[in-house]
Amino acid sequence: MPDMYVSVPYDANGAEGINNKPVNSEPVAGTIPRGGHPAYDIPDTAEGYDKAKAELKNPLEASEENLEKGKALYEIYCISCHGKKGDGNGYLSQAEKFEGIPSYKDRDINAGSIYHVIMHGKNLMGSHSSQLTYNERWQIIHYVENLRAEL
């Protein structure tokens, strides 16, 4: 029984799947991904950035609770580069690890463009989509917009 010792590996979700049929080739109709929110399907292109900027709106209310949660998350994920005030003067900028981190004040951004950058990253900033849940992203955006207004 050599197959017991050296099994043939199958990638059930690969192009060939099992018996030449991918197992999860199509999502079940009417379903949404784990977490309860639809997949983000705006592409990581300049056109996608413009589309997100034009079409995406923050679905969360700008409540004190959401601002506080957004601030706490900002202090974990964003402050080291973007700074306490959102001026691009965070610790990594001060230590000259990264240069040219923009101030929120100088950027033509809105909730949709910020969400797009969190999802895909931009320039030196990588994607943070895997570290943050759907609601956490929007909470951070509330806080960033608040910081931007103060600048």
From TrEMBL:
The keyword Metal-binding applies. It comes from the Bacteria. It comes from Polaribacter reichenbachii. The lineage of its organism: Bacteria, Pseudomonadati, Bacteroidota, Flavobacteriia, Flavobacteriales. Keywords: Heme, Iron, Metal-binding. The keyword Transmembrane helix does not apply. InterPro entries: Cyt_c-like_dom (IPR009056), Cyt_c-like_dom_sf (IPR036909). Residues 65-148 form the Cytochrome c domain. PROSITE patterns: CYTC. Coiled coil: none annotated. GO terms for molecular function: electron transfer activity; heme binding; metal ion binding. This is Cytochrome C.
